[in-house]
Structure formats: structure tokens, C-alpha cells
Automatic annotation (TrEMBL):
Single GO MF annotation: nucleic acid binding
Protein's UniProt name: OSJNBb0088C09.15 protein
Gene Ontology biological process: DNA integration
Comp. bias intervals (Gly residues): 281-291
Top-rank taxon, per record: Eukaryota
PANTHER family: GAG-POL-RELATED RETROTRANSPOSON (PTHR11439), RNA-DIRECTED DNA POLYMERASE, PROTEIN KINASE RLK-PELLE-DLSV FAMILY (PTHR11439:SF524)
Domain Integrase catalytic, first and last residues per copy: 370-537
PROSITE patterns: INTEGRASE
Segments for region (Disordered): 240-330
Organism classification: Eukaryota, Viridiplantae, Streptophyta, Embryophyta, Tracheophyta
A Pfam family it matches: Retrotran_gag_2
Species this protein is from: Oryza sativa subsp. japonica
Amino acid sequence: MSTSSATSTATDSATVSSSTSTVAPVFVNPYATIAVKSHVPISLELRNPNYNKWKAFFRSMCGKFGLLDLLDAAPPANPDAAWEQANCYLRSRLFGSVADDVLDLAMEPDQSARDLWIAIDNLFQANKEPCTIYLHHEFHSMTQGDLSVADYCQRMKTAADALRDISHPVTESQLVLNLLRGVNSRFTSTADNIASAPVLPSFAYARNTLVLKELRNANSVQVQSETALVAANSAHSNCTGGTCHSSGGQQQNRAGGGNGGNGSKNKGKNGGRNNNRNSGGKCGGGFGGRPGQQQPWRAPSAGILGPYPQAHTAFTGPYSSPPPAGSVQPAWDQAGLVAALNGMTLHNPNSWVLNTGATSHMSSIDGILVTRLPNSQTYITVGSGHSIPIVCRGTSFLPIGTTRFDLRHVLVAPSLKSDVHRHIVEFVEYAHTQFGHRLKCLQADNGTEFVNHNTTSFLAGRGSLLRLSCPYTSPQNGKAERMIRTLNNSIRTLLLQASMPPSYWAEGLATATYLLNRRPSSSVNNSIPFQLLHRKIPNYSMLRVFGCLCYPNLSATAAHKLAPYSAACVFLGYPSSHKGYCCLNISTRRIIISCHVIFDETQFPFSGDPVDASSLDFLLQDAPAPSVIAPSLAGVEQPHLPHAPFPVNVEQRLPTGAPSTKDEHLPYYVQPAAHCGQDDGKFHTAGCHVSIFLKQGTIVTSYPAVHVFFTTSRHGGAIPVPLPTTTGADDSAPSHRCGCTHTSPAAMAEEFKALIDNGTWRLVPRPPGANVVTGKWIFKHKFHSDGSLARHKARWVVHGYSQQHGIDYDETFSPVVKPSTIRVVLSIATSRSWPIHQLDVKNAFLHGTLDETVYCQQSSGFIDPAAPDAVCLLQRSLYGLKQAPRAWYQRFATYIRQLGFTPSASDTSLFILRDGDRLAYLLLYVDDIILMASSAELLCHITARLHTEFAMTDLGDLHFFLGISVRRTPDDLFLSQRQYAVDLLQRAGMSEYHPTATPVDARAKLSASEGAPVADPTEYRSLADALQYLTLTRPEIAYAVQQVCRFMHDPHEPHLALVKRIMRYIKGSLSAGLHIGTGPVGSLTAYSDADWAGCPDSRRSTSGYCIFLGDNLVSWSSKRQTTVSRSSAEAEYRAVAHAIAECCCLRQLLQELHAPISTTTVVFCDNVSAAYMTANPVHHRCTKHIEIDIHFVREKVALGQVRVLHVPSTHQFPDFMTKGLPVQLFTDFRSSLCVRDPPAATASGY
């Protein structure tokens, strides 16, 4: 370094001379206060990758004040006071420009400015390669999503700058192409134009072009001109001298009250409104017809899906809300007019659409007439094509506030009950033609629509009977009234679920009838009415959710090639004359029938306008004279119509072929519902259901609340089982299991004999005041590992809920073996090639000895005839007793100690035997036992001793344990839950869903308040419980299952979507399982990771770890931390502490198993700061929040039991225990965690 001096810009300068030739004198004013932020405008933080930018700012500031040599050159051997002053000055500048979290990790005592500079550089530059991989992935996977163009471009540029800062710059062309790749679909054309340019433009040009396109899209206004209610004028009108003409001839001006304008009679006191647009104010006015009157402003009326388009109502003017300046307000209340129209009838009010183009008003109620006029015999043709007579005509008025709106030419027509006769005739002919049956009898009430000359003559002429109920005796016609009530309830449910107004009750009726005829009915012995009528199973694959959003194919009727091929519609049901779907176009209000429709069954267009449930109360009211056609056809019991005719006028927008007379066969077998088990109001077996599987959309069946884990608090003594075993078997399809069961007398007799032989009770007279526990028989099936039926089983179970604490039970806790213990023991036995056998204790709970006095009733079907009133004084435990698991464990543990076994302190369900060099391990899980020994002779000796004390079965080599299929080969042990996963998919109705590659999206972060609550929380909780058990052999779904289990108290739709995604991932990886190899097990290695502040609600972090014994994965965890971490280092350190705690437990367990770990356990962590803190004895500010973990980890490190090392993120296996990963990274990590497909020779067996 030269000895020249540098002059500071400060006013007062002092010369600092170097004591050596390596440091030049610098001029620093020690009292000058330099604002660091004015020279280094950004702060260096761990979370923000801006190190290179900060470095450039800071070096620029040092160059300005001549301090660069203090950063670049080594400190002198004997620094003088001037150098110390400059060094302290520079250190203070560093302190002021970096964040606290950086200082906590980089600052050391007695540190020079250069040393601090180097420590900061190492903190950010030591792991470039993992950062490069992460930033490249983030850059290339970035999409616009919901961001604006400006925000999206800013994020893209920030990601590119971050890559540049770590010496991996992105070229301008790569930046532009990646920007265009991630834009939303509405910018696709603009992006294509930019990309197809001869010379790829710059990033700034591409950004400005996209921003301009976004502004144009925001300013564009779409005008809906098509309407189904009124005809719009297609030509401009010319008004001269009060007379209006159009280019197409004379313009007709029609309004609700009559014609308006000059040249036509003013029918109605207030006249009509001219629909023409007047020029110069010379045309007939809208009200009163005064020339030159200014058009009043009228606010648009609200339609079903929001405001109507302009042409939808006669009272909507040419202006939009708010009113323009100078406009004239109408003198009458428009809302009051609609209310007045609704008030004229006693029926349920609907939204009135005024000015339907009619010249007269029509009503079926003559009470609204003020004056009556004579009427000639005239008829009106209605929409169905039939004519109805006009009874009378007259005038009426609508009260609107303080004024009244007169109506003239009001025609009164009778209600259409006379149409009933025509429908009866049509139905009789339909039944005879389609099914070959004649009508034998018609049951009805005394309504005149049935009791009239035409109907009675028609029935008498065909030899059919007309049976009438007695007056005011509705139960005689109860079958018809119950059917009407069922239909009304179904209509109400359909409309409320889709938030549709009551005006769509006719469509709801048609859909409800369609579905009712395709459901099993108890009135026909749980058969399907459609199947009885047509002799074939209905096609359930066409069923969709009523009122949902749908998109029919409109390509055949597109106006031009660039017109949209579809439009947003509402699904309204199934037309009777077409094999397709009926859809209501939201914008045009037209009905479209098509067989090519895409459905979004989670969206309901009407949901934006909620419907008051009280508006559907008319469906609950009984009609004055309800009646329904309920014929008895020969050979068929109580059939129903296939479905009611669709009650709307249909405009066919797509060409459809003739309806096929051959319905498609149902691809899945649908079994009718049945009742099973006994119902005592407290204890139930698994219910039955009818499963209807859809190829797309949602599940339309509900499943019973099946809790996978039965606990002692819920079922009084039952112990966790993987799936409910109260299932039936179908020999034709072993994989299909129905919830129905059968009583088995042979199984009952076998169970009762075992109870007697075991001395379970003795009969005694019933003591007065004693608490007698009730019971019942439970029936279930035992299955093999492939799902085939093994045997029927009956069990006498007492009702533990009727026990009283302190009287007939006290302690109830009973331990079960831990999953990690099972994997550790299997790893040791596999590595040493030990024989592994499986034992099953018959009636395990019956072996437990009771200390309390317990009475129970005699078993149903086996009551002693000599003492029918006696009760059973229990000598041994029974299934269902709260203390039964504990009594059995104490009995077994006491005896197994007599054989030389000792219980493990780490897991009390593990028993260890050591006799010299001979070893044996025994794992107890209720009545299932896994026994392994160092020699076959020792194993046979132990088994024989157990047989002398307990009734048990030696099932041979371990093959099926706790729902886990085990297959052993010379190279490994393969654990699989394939059959459990298949049953779970069938139970959820997702066997036919398309699989996914990962169980959770890489960017998904679930929130507790996101989305709407699920309709059936019980089903959500049942599936989440079942998925927890699947993690015993599937560690890759641990994080996803942990996420869905967090919201079991209040699940929402996004949470249910994640459950379904996990199920779809399981569908695509059914054969995957956990491999346990035969390699050495002399080392213990752990990997820990944390997702800092990943929870969007509480900002708590998620910890995850994976622990390997040799090459075998034996323990893993994904869990949200209990407290909030203030830094990523703190979160990572907590994760390390959790992993080390589990490692210590496993080391203790291995010590007890006589397989101690002699080497240090290595814990890998991808956070440099956390790795440094495990060995650094200095307490920083961030460590006080985790002081207990600090002392715990450092103690283990100091003892040499644990060593924490840094690992690159590319080898951080627990990543998918804390977050979602991309497909490729997820696949690589999954294979590294011993989760693989089975060997080719055994793939078909799982």
C-alpha cells in the first residue's frame, strides 16, 4: 500500500499516521457523525439475498472515506492509536448497516473490522451451490398467478438479480422468455407476439407492453346486448313532429300499461312508455306522452344473478347508475311497484319482469278486479300449446306509495287443474306402451281434477278402478302424500344447496324425481325403481351436482371461427327427451341442451345471491287437495315414472341425435343398503352405505363416521386397530368390502365355549343395588393380507360406558409398542438374519385377572334356563371393560418375566431375553406378538412355554401384522400397507380418481380460515384419522397428513382438497412400501430441517427429522413447533434439538437391545448458523429464547454422543417433512428414505 494521504470531505480533518508501511494515513474526523443510510441505503439481512448489492454500497462508502485498506489488507503487527481509531470507526459503520441476526452470527469478541467483514462474507458466500439450485428453481418456476404485471415483473427481476449476485447471471433473453412463460392466459396472445419478434426485445420493452395490455383489459367494458325477454330496436328511429318512424317501418311502442307515444291509443291512465330513443325531445314521452318531456333516470333493477342487462325490464332507462346530471327523477317508487305486484297474489312472490310484450295482463285470481266487463267466449294459447278460456275481464290498479298505477285489460283465466285428465291419459298410454302393463287402480282424494266425467269415463272404459279416500281422511292417501313430502324436501335441499331462487322449483322437481327413481327404495325391498321398470341398472356416471357451474360445447353454433366455444351456464337437470344435460346460459337466459359439458361442481353461480330458506317454506305446506298417480302395475310393485317431463321451453343450441334406447351399463357394482348390527342407542357397528362413484366431480354418497383408532375412552377397552373390521366380504370381489355383516351361530358358540373354558365368570344371584354391566354380540370378518376372507368371528362385548369409576374400575391405561421400536427391532433381526415369527393370542382380554368386583348380564342366546335372572360375576376381563387392556397386559408381563424376559425402559411393550450369547426380542401389541430370536431352537422353546400358559396360534413367519403386509427376502424386509390403502380409497369413493405425483403442492400453505366449511366434517376427520395410520410405512406423506390433521376441529374446503390430493397420490403409489435392508446397523444418522414461520395463521415453524439405523429409516417426524421462532436459526435449532432427543431415545433403546452404538451420532442440518451454535459456547442474543435446547444439545455434543454438521439442501432428506417439493426432488428424496416399490417378484402380492 502506498504512503500517500487521502483528504476527507469532512470540514475538520485529522491525520492518522500508520505505524508501518502497510497502512496509509487516512483523515477521519472522530467526532463527525456520518449517516450510514445516506451511503448504504439497504440493510443486510439473512432473509433477503442482497449481499452483493450491500457489499457494493459499503465498499463505495469505504472508498469515499479512504477506508478500503482496512478491509483488504491484514492488520499491522503493532497497531497504533490512529489505526485503532480507524478500525473502530469502520466497525461502527458495519454495525449500523447490517441486521441484528447477521451480527449475532458473525460478531465475535475482540474482532477487527476486517475479521468482521470476512465473517460476513463467509456467512453469505460459503454455500453458493445450494443457493444456486434453489434460486434457479424459484426463477424458472415463477408464474404470475394473482399478481399484477408490475409486481410479477418486479419479482422476476429480483430473482434474476439474486442469481447474478452469486455469480450465476441470467441473460436478457432468458429473463424475457421466462417472463413470457409465466404470464396468465389472458396475456398469451401478447406474449406470443413479443416472443415471435425477429429480434427478441429487452425486458423493459416486454414489461411495458404487458402493462399496457393490462390497462387496456381493465378499461374495456363488455356490453351484453342479447336478451330473451324483450326485443331490442335494431334500427335508429326518426322522430319528427311528435310522430316516430323506424327504418324498418312503423315502430310499435308497447309497455305494461298499453301502447304509448303519438299515433296510438293511450291504454291505461298513465299511458305507455315509448321504447324509442327520442331526438330533440319531440317524440311522445314515456309517461303521459307529453312532447318534449325529459326522459327520467331509472336505476337498473336487480336480476337473479345481479343487475339485469338494460333490455331486461321495461323500467330500466338508457342511463346507468348513478343518475346523470340534470336527469328527472320518476314521481313514483319503482320498488313499490314490484311490491304492489307481489302483493296482489296470495302465492309465493317471485321477481316480476315487467313489459313482456303483452297488450293485456292476465291473472288466475278474479279478486284483483275492481270492475268487471262482459267478455265473449275467447281463449288464450299458453306456452304448452293448449288453449284456456277467458272467464272475465276488467280493470285493476297497483297501490304505489300515495299514488296508484291503473291496469286495464286484465284477463282472468282459471287454474289449469283441467290438465290433470290429459296427463292421466298420457301416463296410462305411456305405461302400456313402454312396460306392457295396464292401469289396474288409481288411488286419489276427492279433488275435482280426478272426480269428473272425463276421468271416470276414461277409467271405466279401460276397466280400471278409481279408489277415493274418505272425506277429511288423508291417511288413506298417505302413500301419495308421503311421496309429495319426499319430493318437496328434495327440491328444497337442491335449491338451498345451490342457492337458487324458488322460481326454479320446477327444474328442482324434475331433478329430484330423476334421482329418486335411481336410488334404492325401502318400499320395493331396497331395489332400484328404474331397474325394476327397465330391467337394467341405471347409469350413474352422468349424475352431476344440481345448480353447479358448467360449460357446454357451443362450437356448432359459433357465429364465427373466433367466437367462444363455450359459455358459463348453470346445470338445471336432465331433459326427458334427450340424453344430455340441460344448461341455463347465465348471460342470455337461454336453455342449452348438450351432451358435451364440462362441470365445475364446486362452484354455484347463484351463490352470490343467497336465498332465504323461508322463501322455500311453500314446499313444506300441504296442498289443499294433494293427489298423485300411484298405480299398481301387474308384475311390478309400486313403480315410479322415470322422471317428470322437463317443464321449460327448450331452445336447442346444439344438434343432438335421437335418444338411445339402450342405457349404458353401470361400470361399478352398486349394492343396496341394508341394516346390520344391533342398535341400543350407544354402541354401533360400522354402518352400511350405497356407494355411487363418479368419473369426475364430487362424491354423492355419505359415509358413516368410522373412527380408525378405537380408544378406551370411546369404546371402553377396545385397542387401536388399523381399519374397522366389522366388514363383510364379497367372494366375487375380495377387494370390495361392504359394511354389512351376518350373525354366525357357529362363531357365537365357539366364543361362548372359550368363555366357559377360561372360567371368565360364575353365575350368582343379582345383588340388590349392584351395577350390572350390559353387553351385546359383535360380528366381524377376519381377512388375509390380500383382502380375502379368513374366517367369521363373533365376540361378546360388554358396554364399558355403563361402568362406574371407583366401583367397578379404577386404572385403565395400557401401553402399546411404538412404531419406531418395531422398525428398530426388525432392522436388527433382519441384519442378523434371525427368524421372526408372529403369534396370535386367542381371546387375549379373557386372560386378564380382575381386581374389582364386576357384574354383567348373561350372554344373549346363552341364558341359563335354570337361573334366567342370575348375573355373571366376572373372574377375568371381557372385551369392552375399561380395565380389560390393562388387566391383560399385567397378566402377560407377569408371566413373561418368569421366562427370563425383562421389559424395556424405553418401551414397556418390548421384552428382552438374554441368556449368555443367546438373545430374543418380543413385541406385544394387544393380542398380536412378534417374536424373534438368535436361533430357531430358542424361538421354538419360548413359543412352547407361551402355549402352556395362553391359548395362542403360531402363525409362522411374520407376514401380516397390524394391517401391514410383511414380505421377507434374502436381501431385505418389505413392509407394505397396500390393502389398507385400497380399502381406504374405496371407502372414500376415490378408486377411479386420477393419481398425482406428489401428496402436496410445492407452494401450498393452508390457512384455518381459507375457503368455506366442509359440508360433512365427520367424513373429513375419518379420512384424516385413517391417513395417520398409513404413515407407519409411508414417511413421504407425513407432512401432508400433519397439515390436514391440524384442521380436524374445523375443516374447510381447501383442507378437504388436500385430503383428496393425498388420496390421489396414494392411488398412484399403492405398491410403495418401506424397505428394511440386511446391511450393518452399527451407526445412527439423523437429518433435521425446519420451515421457518411457515404457518400463515400463527407463524409457527414446522420441524421435521429422519433417523437412519445403518441404511434403514427407523424414525421420522413432521410437527409444528409449539412456539414462534424469531429467526430461521432459532427454528432450525429447535428442529435439531427434537432430532437429538429422538436419537438419545434410540441410543438408549439400542443399549437395552444389546446392540449399542459405539460411534458418534451425526445430525445433519442445512442451516449454517444452527450448526455453529451447537458447538459455540458463546451465548448470543438469539439463544436466550431457546436456552433449554441450547444446554441440552451442547451437553450431548460435549459428551461426544452427537455431532451436528452442515449438509447442502440438495441432500436434506427431511425437506418433505416440512414443506411441499417439486416432483423431481420429491421422487429423489422418497427413494433415499427407503420408500420404494416392491421387488418385481412380489409386486403382485401387495
